[in-house]
Amino acid sequence: MNDDLILLGHGSGGKLSHQLLDELIIPNLSGVPAAGQNDAALLNIGGVKLAFTTDSYVVDPIFFPGGNIGDLAVNGTVNDLAMMGARPLCLSVGFILEEGFLKSELARIVISMREAADAAGVAIVTGDTKVVPRGKGDRIFINTSGIGAVEHSLSINGAAARVGDKVIVNGCIGDHGIAVLSAREGLEIDSGIKSDSAPLNGLVTELLPLGDALHVLRDPTRGGVATTLKEIALQSGVTVKLSEENLPVNAGVKGVCSILGLDPLYVANEGKLLALVAPERAGEALAIMRRHPLGKDAAVIGEVTESSAGRVVMETMVGGVRGVEMLAGEQLPRIC
Amino acid sequence: MNDDLILLGHGSGGKLSHQLLDELIIPNLSGVPAAGQNDAALLNIGGVKLAFTTDSYVVDPIFFPGGNIGDLAVNGTVNDLAMMGARPLCLSVGFILEEGFLKSELARIVISMREAADAAGVAIVTGDTKVVPRGKGDRIFINTSGIGAVEHSLSINGAAARVGDKVIVNGCIGDHGIAVLSAREGLEIDSGIKSDSAPLNGLVTELLPLGDALHVLRDPTRGGVATTLKEIALQSGVTVKLSEENLPVNAGVKGVCSILGLDPLYVANEGKLLALVAPERAGEALAIMRRHPLGKDAAVIGEVTESSAGRVVMETMVGGVRGVEMLAGEQLPRIC
Question: PurM-like C-terminal domain: which residues (chains A, B) (predicted)?
Fold first, then answer.
């Protein structure tokens, strides 16, 4: 295979994405710091601390159970800001439309964006629209970039995990990826699974009073919980041990995954966060989540067991322990 | 024709783009203020004044005389910030790659982005990469969003033109559009025309001491000088009178335009700005531009003649006067 080609897997959020970033993009674009591995960049402008992030959305299909590309583009960027503990303030939106796309569908998407922005309490303040000829795009791609205010002095980032930290997730994993896949394959009626697409900034606001006990926040989107935890383990230089038994997974997602041979640990989420919290405050963190509408199925799914080169292992239901690596190749392309 | 279809012209920056924005996007996305008609949104965050803007780049071909999609994406967003009188600080970058695109070409583009960012004095601080299947994209699309610091208290915007203002352009018009068109049609050797893609923030810094005499700054990209002036005339409720004789146009651009039946007034620029300046300081503004490397061919091309519903007229070389409207349809699709 020609080693010079971009593959679908380079967009998976997994191992190939990291290689492309680490070997090609970051070295050549020296302005991007290694901290680009966090969900947003931190800026200090005139004494005001801001978070700044960008994401492009190319999900296929553009309408799926639980959402569409528009609200996904708002929630995804809101969540990247929230994962820095920032209060999302405003978004930009860039549309790339394919000639022949329907204005009526664009209107539905734009309305969803406004509703999602209202729900998250952010304003969409600037935008751009381009059109490419038929066959040179795929209906609609959306970029959203966002600015948030960092109003705390905590160091919440992927390198801050410490031995003893509990790994908490705010609910069932894999819903978004399986909802999109089901819609793409025409399985939505059978599975009944909806995307979990939601803004997490409200939940993060509730967690911030945990203060220094709140070490890492990260939303497990492309590449799923497995890839996100592996990133954290590598950034922090720790080992994370997961408990398969404690992973919350909806029955429908389990069913589709077992039929298609997918592992929910690698399936994308769009309304989930992983919080790594010092053990003495973990119970409190769990209680905060469970009181929140987006956290009623929250669970402690693992802990940081030792300080060593970044590893993730999982205690399986049958009592064994297996290594967990980043997503290799693409499990589900174009999931966001 | 089905009125529900998105047309290439909706991305032209001209009349159809304005219709789409005014009739579909803005009403449904209520967060976007009418001030979205300026090149960037103005924000006040914690007492710090910022400009925020976004643009997606879909230029075809991606490499053209004088630049490529990468430096274009940096310069274009830097310029949108500069047109608010803001000092560009940092950019985000979002890549949408087509499966099978060459990593070696991506590397060339990324290196150009770094060089352009260095030249403009901005940092690229955050990014995202997506990959779409073969045939669902077109090699590479790039979104850049940018944040700039507004360190003046002037009201530089499209609604600030006043009767008597001189319209000054910093050099020859139409180079970018004709360079891209020539590359697309294989005419580059014949025409010898290069894109004018350049960062205008340095030139704007020189102009800011004009203070209250500096009314409008706008870069005439998609839709060209004609469309941009019509926008300004409408926003300010004035009539702008252009002098065809004084329009600086390179001989090569004139030649290609006359062969292909194009009007340089509607051709995109990527290193040009229009400044509307109070008459008493216009000579000084012109002198500032001519001393700057990006302004040696600067010229006064018109003036604001009366306060009335937004009109642009042009005194032609043969002595007549004709109305100048926004670009209708698409003259040159995918020019940026």
Answer: 162-313
B268 contacts in A (CB within 8 Å)? Answer: none
Q: Where are the alpha helices (DSSP H) in chain A?
A: 15-19, 26-28, 69-82, 103-120, 175-185, 188-191, 201-207, 224-236, 251-260, 279-291
Distance to chain B for A194, nearest Cα, Å: 23
Q: What is the mean pLDDT of chain B?
A: 93
Residue A281: its pLDDT value, please?
98
Query: Between A89, A106, A130, which is nearest B56 by CB?
Result: A130
Burial (CB count <10 Å: 0-12, 13-18, 19+), residue A100: middle
Q: How far is A328 from chain B (nearest CA, A)?
A: 15
Chain B residues close to A111, C-beta within 8 Å: 28
**Lookup: tokens for A58:** 């190319």
Residue of A16, A129, A151 to mutate for B, most B C-beta atoms under 10 A: A129
Of B36, B123, B131, the CB nearest to A8: B131
Residue A288 has pLDDT above 90, yes or no: yes
> What is the average per-residue pLDDT within A298-308?
94
Residue type for position A45: I
* Structure confidence by residue, pLDDT tens digits, A203-241: 999 999 999 999 999 999 999 999 999 999 999 999 999
Measured CA distances, A256 to A169, A250, A265 (Å): 21, 10, 13
Is domain B166-323 classified as CATH 1.25.40.80? no
Question: Where do the structural domains in chain A lie, given as residue ranges?
Answer: 33-149, 166-323
Nearest to A170 by CA among A80, A267, A291: A291
Residues of chain A contacting residue B34, judged by C-beta atoms under 8 Å apart: none
Asked if pLDDT for residue A300 goes beyond 80, the answer is yes
Whether B199 has a pLDDT exceeding 90, the answer reads yes
Question: Would you call the peptide bond into A209 cis, given omega within 30 degrees of 0 as the criterion?
Answer: no
At B190, the pLDDT band (50, 70, 90 cuts) reads low
CA-nearest residue to B30 within chain A is A114
C-beta atoms of A54 and B104 within 8 A: no
Q: Mutual orientation of helices A103-120 and A69-82 as an angle, nearest 10°?
A: 30
A33-149 and A166-323 share one CATH topology? no
Q: Which letter, b or e, does each residue of A8-38 get, where b requires 16 or more Cβ atoms within 10 Å of its Cβ?
A: bbbbbbbbbbbebbeebbbebbebbeeebbb
Fold of B33-149: 60s Ribosomal Protein L30; Chain: A; (3.30.1330)
Given this model, what pLDDT does residue A88 score?
98
Residue of A7, A111, A135 lying closest to B28 (CB–CB): A111
Task: Give how far B246 is from chain A: nearest CA, Å.
Answer: 32
Q: Which of A110, A128, A131 sits opposite B24 (nearest CB)?
A: A110
Residue B103 has pLDDT above 80, yes or no: yes
In chain B, whose CA is at the least distance from the CA of A92? Answer: B54
Could you read off the pLDDT of B8-17 as tens digits, one per residue? Answer: 999 988 999 9
Tell me the two tokens of residue A29.
Answer: 């674009």
- Show the beta-strand stretches assigned E in chain A: 41-45, 48-57, 63-64, 67-68, 87-98, 123-132, 140-149, 166-169, 214-218, 238-243, 274-277, 299-307, 311-315, 321-323
Cis status, amide bond into A61, omega within 30 of 0: yes
If pLDDT is split at 50, 70 and 90, which confidence band does B77 have? very high
